[in-house]
Specification:
The protein is α/β, with parallel strands linked by helices and 401 residues long. It folds into 2 domains: 5-247, Metallo-beta-lactamase, Chain A (4-Layer Sandwich); 255-396, Flavodoxin domain (Rossmann fold). The chain has helices spanning 57-68, 83-86, 89-95, 105-115, 184-187, 189-200, 204-215, 233-247, 266-280, 296-305, 322-333, 353-362, 382-399; strands at 5-8, 11-13, 16-18, 23-24, 28-29, 34-36, 39-42, 46-49, 75-77, 100-103, 122-123, 129-131, 136-141, 151-155, 160-162, 221-223, 253-261, 286-290, 306-316, 319-320, 340-346, 368-369, 374-376. It has a 7-stranded mixed β-sheet, with helices on one face. Strands 17, 18, 19, 20, 21, 22 and 23 form a 7-stranded mixed β-sheet that branches. Strand 7 and strand 8 form a beta hairpin. Helix 6 packs across helix 10 (296-305), helix 7 runs antiparallel to helix 8 and helix 9 crosses helix 13. The protein is elongated, with a radius of gyration of 24 Å. Bound molecules: MU-OXO-diiron (FEO).
Length: 401
């Protein structure tokens, strides 16, 4: 049965949710599910903005048929070809064979590659407009937010931006589809940060370019492809500010994230002593993560969140422990930078992990080491404890600067 939501007098939400999905993009746990947003504009022409993942296609087609109310579908605007938004494309074409596809050249190539779709499309590029009645669609390219073909649509008459993956979040919609009608900071922000850094975090420069374009537009509503719709001045300003900080790779909060990789608990012990020493010095925001346990998408998000990070790892096969090495590789792949870091290493006969971590992390952009690397051989001794205390004090002092 259909379950549409009216966004404005002639704009209807026709998307759906998936709460059964285990891993978004086969990579990221989404315990709170995910929404696939699609919007229908009912003007002199009818315009659908993107389709949905196959998981939400049944309710999507019910919604679309209901919202059209017997009218034909004139246009489909394709902003992004990733299958979480394009998987229902072929069925849409079968259901509405006269629909005109409106998109850019890169999407056109991908439509051929994915679906063998070779029909004529209405090709648009940066700044092109399409009048559909009272409303004018203005197209804005946004390459690499999140794929190279991505574009946004702006409707000046509504001051409304269809922002593709940008400003989206993990987390299914429940009840309201509006950010101002949910507890976004409490219920969505951690997911939004994790979504941002894992999905588009690598492309900070491109996100900054998109933000600069957005700054030149008067925007009163943002309709993303995932998560709630933004429609109040305060909430839009708040979320744009988050995106600005995130895409500049700046810390969102002053605090410390301690990441440890421990086999028999001694490196964990050192990490927890260090965290406690930092807290004793008055730093209230200290988090400790076992990198072998917490999902890497959350580790990445938390590393980007804080101003200071600690990497504590045991030595393994003369290198860094597997899960820590994997985490460092993921941070590097996402252009992690602009942070203060400290290092703790362990090794029962030849501690080497710390030097390797310093070599890796020290080569990243604008990373500054705080304090001296602490080495433990097997277990923490009183002498090591003193070194951890000194490191904790140095980190705390730096955080409080
Ligand atoms: Fe929601 Fe890049 O797809």
């Amino acid at each position: 049965m259909h379950n549409t939501v009216t966004i404005g007098e002639d704009l209807i939400y026709v998307g759906g949710n998936d709460r059964r999905i285990a891993l978004f993009e086969s990579a990221f746990p989404v315990p709170r599910g995910v929404s696939y947003n699609s919007y229908l504009l009912l003007d002199e022409k009818t315009v659908l903005f993107d389709t949905v993942d196959i998981a939400a296609s049944e309710v999507f087609f019910e919604n679309l048929g209901h919202a059209l109310g017997g009218r034909t579908l004139d246009y489909l605007v394709v902003h992004h070809m990733e299958p979480d938004h394009s998987a229902s494309f072929v069925r849409l074409l079968q259901t509405y064979p006269d629909v005109k596809v409106v998109t850019n050249q890169k999407v056109k190539g991908m439509l051929a590659n994915y679906f063998g779709f070779e029909r004529e499309v209405l090709l648009v590029k940066e700044g092109d407009t399409l009048s559909v009645g009272k409303n004018t669609l203005t197209f804005v390219v946004a390459p690499m937010v999140h794929w190279p073909e991505v574009m946004f649509t702006y409707i000046p008459e509504k001051k409304l931006l269809f922002s593709a993956d940008a400003f989206g979040t993990f987390g299914a919609l429940g009840g309201s589809v509006f950010a101002d009608e949910v507890h976004f900071e409490r219920d969505f922000l951690d997911d939004a940060r994790r979504y941002y850094f894992n999905i588009v975090g690598k492309y900070g420069v491109q996100v900054q370019n998109a933000l600069k374009k957005a700054a030149g537009l008067e925007i009163s509503t943002i309709c993303p492809l995932h998560g709630p719709i933004w429609r109040t001045k305060e909430s839009i300003a708040w979320y744009l500010a988050k995106y600005d900080v995130w895409s500049k790779y700046l810390p969102e909060e002053k605090g410390v994230a301690v990441f440890y990789a421990s086999v028999y608990g001694h490196t964990q012990n050192a990490a927890e002593i260090l965290a406690a020493e930092i807290a004793k010095c008055g730093v209230t925001d200290v988090k400790v993560y076992d990198v072998s346990v917490t999902h890497i998408s959350e580790l990445l998000s938390e590393a980007f969140r804080y101003s200071h990070v600690v990497f504590a790892s045991t030595t393994y096969n003369n290198g860094v422990f597997i899960s820590m090495e994997n985490f460092l590789r993921d941070l590097q792949a996402h252009a992690f930078q602009n942070r203060k870091y400290a290092v703790v290493e362990n090794g029962s006969w030849s501690p080497q992990a710390g030097g390797l971590i310093e070599e890796t992390v020290g080569a990243w952009k604008n990373m500054r080491k705080v304090g001296e690397k602490v080495t433990l051989v097997s277990a923490v001794k009183e002498e090591t404890r003193e070194k951890l205390k000194a490191l904790g004090e140095a980190i705390a002092e730096d955080v409080k600067k």
